[in-house]
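Shipment paperwork, digital attachment
Item: protein structure file
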Amino acid sequence: MGTVTLGVSIAVPEPYGSQLQELRAGFGDAAAHGIPTHVTLVPPTEVNAERLPLIGAHLAEVAARFRPFRMRLAGTGTFRPLSPVVFVQVVEGAPGCTRLQSRVRDAEGPLDRELAFPYHPHVTVAHGISEEAMDLAYATLADYAAEWLCEGFALYEQGPDGVWRKLREYPFGTGPTGVPPQTGSAADAPAGATARPS
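Attachment content:
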């Protein structure tokens, strides 16, 4: 059956997802439109396609045992010089993200893998572009803020064209809502959510 490249992440809901994606593209990041705005739980991971049912069952079990938590983004950070990345900081919800990714990557589960760097939840807004463009991204989004209730996560597959596409959503617990909608959805932003792009 071959292999597939998967990722697991928390979607940043609208209008913030598209907002940050367009800004990322504007900074000159050519990959921006192929990557839905997100907080990574499992980075790109190559697996045998035949393991997809097992992975799906594992993710469903993790999601069923998790509960919603608040997410708040504010300001920018960078991993430079270790990695050419500028990001919007997760200032509320980081412990929830950390617990969740740990369960998703459980050593006994089908997505166990080593990370290149210690886990640090964030929303990438520039990656691998010029230093000047990354400086611009860092300054432009210094006052950015957004918040929402995280109620689930999703499994994505990277296609041969480099574009990441959602395979399935995994809502937490038994609630009726799942991953926040992104581009192409008519759904409104969660009640009480705010954003202040500079």
